[in-house]
Specification:
The complex is a heterodimer. By secondary structure, chain A is an alpha/beta fold. Chain A has helices at about 10-25, 45-55, 65-75, 125-135, 145-155, 185-200, 215-230, 245-250, 270-275, 275-285; strands at about 1-5, 30-35, 90-95, 100-105, 115-120, 140, 160-165, 175-180, 205, 235-240, 255-260, 290. The chains are: A alpha/beta, B mainly alpha.
């Protein structure tokens, strides 16, 4: 599994980085930590590039490197990376790759499990390109900032998207898994099983009767889902909740929930203009939400 | 749902979300093309104004690359019957375009020589008595150099000096943060203010000189421009110094004037000779702008500078090719070509007529009002659209307002250089913003005061000083 963690400001990115690394360690996956720098106007992009090159030559930090250095120090302080004299951030090499991507190579870096990269440009375009080029399975991003970014990420990025909102390191979390009979829901169930197994979390399966579905049919879905978890020896509870799907799930989710949802099967054009249920839930919930693809 | 349908519709949507301003611009243009031509305007003139609006929208929102906007401008001029192909082609290249090309290459060659370290030493030597004088020195040197070599050259040389003196400052504390901002803004404002000083300070100045020559047969040489603009520059520098000291009060305790020292490699004989030779080339080119500008034009002289660096092996063509913004050169060439057609088709006269009619509805209609509107409009447009492109597109209108009075054209070009409001307005502003240490809000907050004061200074100088020249 390959995980992409997108970071922005320092303090603001702490929870994203922390949860992202926990997930990466649980799955023993390779991780890319990406900082996307400000979009530069086409008028000035070459001038900016020359200046940044000049700053590198003078051993003055290039903008964005400070954020990656902070992220690296944070990983060491949290023991996600073993601290050695040889892998200090002081001695780094920036490798200019194609498509506005720069990779930071540290002199003593032994493992290829964690990559630090810097990109410049429009954030959605850059993350989309990063995911497509390097085949990341999950993109983890902070919950702050412009909500439109999350909508576009879910819509256009070819990986699962984890929006880390209101995450606290000291809290004991449980998975909240809303299910129905869609294909997206099947994928969410699979992901929730993997998460619960490797992260040792309890799971709460919920379902909301929608449209012409009878309560019996919904209960059947809940039972079937519970069996899948039981086979993997994961503790679950089930609950049938009433009301409009989005609001019911948002109200049911607590601060200690990690909501895992499947991507909407809706027509992409309809999703773009009118949104979707998983997206509305992700926007309204005040807890981490993973939308699987 | 069919998987391939999902993939295709998702790709189209992504294209739309990234290029929506292109779609909107095209729809607006098609709508305007289908309206009847306004009274008093010929069809080619009307079409040239539609292309002007299209270019404004595309350059502002950047949905497609600049070279694509440039090519679109050329194609549309011919397809919409604004001018025949030969006329469009001949207006595509002139001395102003050569200047943009030459000055960009010349800048890359200068920056490549690593003169910043030597310059830093010089600044310390002259202004190193106190930290406040040092910052004033940074600002003054940035302004003087920028007035001759252009913003993009000077900011590339001065920013490493600025960042090296503030690199260990803790920006979490207000005093430290203010010291960082004061240093960065001193360099940025010095560079921006300097660019109005001489014709070679910015492409917009050369474009306006070119337009004046073509449309009004008025010639402005290097000296004449300097006599008009340099006093404004000096007053602005003093004002900017106090505005910045007032906005960012700091003890400057944490500034390390010799912070760059660690980064200086041992200077060897080869490097010394290289630096000496670079300085000679720069002095030669600047002197040629003064002396030979009437004979050879500013563009050819700038190209000669880049050529000299290449001939003597001080920079490779690959380096110049890699770092030159060819897209910007193409775009300027295309917008200047459009500017010529706007004038030739009579579109600029028509716009000025409408503008004057609008002025007549105002309670007090005078030269001062039309000057003020034109100067503020030039300044504001430049801040949201970049300065050189503004002059290349609205320059013909500024000249048309008073073809024989150069103060209108000069004021429009100089006001376009007041890029204090937005980070997209000039390379300096964008480079300072790209450090991550200055936000767009901060830039605007300080800039609004500087912009307003600069317009007032420009007005007073044009009223009381230029008339005596």
């Amino acid at each position: 599994m390959k995980i992409l963690i997108a970071i922005g400001g320092r303090e603001f990115s702490k929870p994203t980085l922390d949860l992202g690394m926990k997930i990466a360690n649980s799955f023993k996956s390779s991780t890319t930590i990406a900082y996307v720098g400000k979009k530069i106007s086409q008028f000035s992009e070459k001038d900016v590039s020359v200046v940044h090159q000049n700053l590198d030559d003078r051993e003055l930090y290039r903008p964005g490197i400070r954020t990656l250095e902070w992220a690296y120090d944070f990983l060491i302080s949290k023991k996600y990376i073993e601290e050695k004299d040889s892998n200090k951030f002081d001695d780094y090499l920036l490798v200019d790759e194609e498509n506005s991507r720069m990779k930071v190579l540290l002199k003593g870096q032994q493992s290829d499990k964690i990559d630090l990269i810097m990109r410049t440009g429009e954030i959605i375009e850059q993350l989309k390109d990063e995911v497509e080029t390097n085949k990341h399975d999950i993109t983890i991003i902070g919950g702050g900032g412009n909500k439109g970014i999350h909508q576009k990420l879910v819509q256009f990025i070819d990986s699962s998207v984890f929006v880390v909102k209101n995450y606290s390191v000291n809290k004991k979390y449980k998975i909240l898994l809303p299910v129905n009979d869609s294909k997206g829901s099947d994928m969410a169930i699979e992901t929730a099983i993997n998460f619960a197994k490797s992260y040792k979390l309890n799971v709460e399966i919920v379902s909301v009767p929608e449209g012409k579905k009878s309560i019996e049919e919904v209960e059947k879905i809940l039972k079937k889902t519970k069996e899948k978890f039981s086979k993997n020896r994961i503790k679950t509870t089930t609950k049938l909740i009433d009301g409009p799907a989005v609001n019911s799930i948002v109200n049911y989710a607590k601060d200690d929930s990690i909501v895992i949802l499947g991507v909407s099967p809706k027509n992409p054009i309809m999703k773009y203009f009118f949104g979707s249920k998983p997206l509305s839930i992700a926007q309204k919930c005040n807890c981490p939400v993973l939308i699987t693809k | 749902m069919n998987e391939s349908y999902k993939v295709i519709s998702s790709s189209i949507l992504f294209w739309f979300s990234q290029k929506k301003w292109f779609v909107y611009s095209v729809i607006i243009s098609i709508f305007l093309l289908n309206l009847s031509t306004p009274v008093g305007l010929t069809v080619p003139a009307y079409h040239s104004l539609i292309i002007l609006l299209l270019v404004f929208m595309l350059v502002t929102f950047e949905p497609i690359p600049f070279p694509a906007i440039a090519l679109l401008t050329l194609v549309l001029q011919v397809v919409l019957g604004v001018a025949p192909p030969d006329v469009v082609a001949s207006s595509f290249m002139n001395d102003a375009v050569l200047f943009v090309m030459g000055s960009l290459m010349f800048a890359i060659a200068i920056v490549h020589q690593g003169l910043d370290i030597r310059l830093a030493k010089l600044i310390i030597k002259i202004f190193g008595k106190s930290k406040r004088i040092f910052l004033a020195g940074l600002m003054t040197i940035s302004a003087i150099l920028s007035s001759f070599l252009g913003e993009h050259t000077v900011i590339a040389i001065m920013l490493p000096i600025g960042l090296s003196v503030i690199k260990n400052i803790d920006t979490q504390q207000a005093d430290g943060k203010n010291a960082v901002l004061l240093t960065l803004f001193s360099i940025a404002y010095g560079t921006i203010i300097g660019s109005i000083g001489t014709p070679s300070g910015g492409a917009r100045n050369v474009i306006m000189i070119n337009y004046l020559q073509e449309f009004s047969n008025v010639s402005i040489d290097y000296w004449k421009w300097m006599k008009h603009a340099y006093p404004i520059l000096m007053i602005q520098l003093v004002v900017a110094y106090f505005v910045l000291q007032f906005t960012f009060p700091s003890s400057l305790n944490n500034i390390k004037m010799r912070g760059f020292k660690k980064n200086i490699g041992k200077t060897d004989v080869k490097k010394n000779i290289n630096h000496l030779f670079s300085c000679l080339i720069i002095i030669g080119i600047v002197s040629s702008w003064f002396v030979f500008n009437d004979i050879y034009g500013l563009g050819i002289i700038a190209l000669a500078g880049a050529l000299t660096f290449m001939i003597f092996g001080m920079i490779s063509w690959e380096e110049i090719n890699k770092n030159t913004n060819w897209g910007v050169i193409l775009l300027f060439a295309a917008t200047i070509s459009l500017g010529f057609q706007i004038n030739e088709t009579g579109a600029s006269s028509w716009l000025v007529l409408r503008f004057n009619e609008l002025l007549e509805t105002l309670p007090s209609n005078s030269m001062n009002v039309s000057w003020s509107i034109m100067a503020v409009l030039s300044g504001l447009t430049a801040n949201f659209f970049t300065s050189s492109a503004t002059v290349s597109l609205i320059g013909p209108m500024a000249i048309e307002l008073h073809p024989t009075d150069i103060s209108f054209a000069l004021s429009s070009a100089i006001a376009s250089g007041f890029s204090f409001l937005t980070v997209i307005s000039s390379p300096t502003a964008m480079i300072i913003y790209s450090t991550g240490l200055v936000s767009t809000k901060m830039f605007f907050r300080v800039g609004i005061l500087m912009f307003s004061i600069s317009i007032i200074i420009l007005y007073l100088m044009s009223q009381f000083y230029w008339v005596k020249l």
